[in-house]
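Suppose a colleague, Dr. K., hands you the sequence of a protein chain of 283 amino acids and asks what its three-dimensional shape might be. Before reaching for any lab equipment, you can write down a predicted structure in token form. Begin with the sequence itself:
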Amino acid sequence: MKAQSNTFIGFEENFEESQAVLFGVPFDGTTSFKPGARFAPSAMREDSWAIESYSPYLDKDLEDLSLFDFGNLELPFGDKMNALRMIEETVDEIVQAGKKPIMIGGEHLVSYAPVKSLVKKYPDLNIIHFDAHTDLRRDYLGEEFSHATVLRRIYDLVGDGKLNQFCIRSGLKEEFEWAKEHAHLEKFTFNTLESRVEALINEPVYITIDLDVFDPSVFPGTGTPEPGGINFHQMLEIIGTLSKLENVVGIDVVELSPKHDASGVSTAVACKTLRELVLATIK
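The predicted structure, expressed as tokens, is then:
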């Protein structure tokens, strides 16, 4: 008999032998509309066993990589700055061991911590970001650290010209105006992704995917659904382009809220998105 695994499918190597380390961040302490993203890491692990480790799209298999699932971090409720510190320290440990971090959120604020860790080793770190929302507010309801401000806080770490944002379809007018001076922001589509990938092909890159980039008809299970998004085949096209990058140093997928999609379809889409992204970028 074999004990049932609670790891994400294909992430069954030990830490010492692994190329990359998956960890979950069950945190949604600044969610402004529908909370529930804290349940995503556990839901994705469970539902990952309903898909295969092999991708017919990429003709690659997770079992051909050396991948370790660390489990979920135990984070304090109501203390976002301490939670961010704990995530940063976890990524520090992963990076110092020569491995790549793969994070499952959780809400989007948690993406700040891996970037803060990675810029210590990669001061020229570039960000590729897919989202429905700009996330570029200076503050939200007086709070500088929020899922609505996370890319602005990441900008504070990486500086001008390092943010590359795609499929954005919601935000304040001043966020779009600010991005014209400080970031590469493409509204609605990802037509310029290939040229940005070509420019960054050998540069250190962190990829963050807010899953509300999908249209709610494809992915209703998210905290702030926004009509007008992409479908799964477009995500496969995006990931195919990202596969050309030679120096992806970390990735995350965030903002699945599984309890807001009783069908389980959103969790299945999240699992396949993560599988494809890992196979395309972990080299």
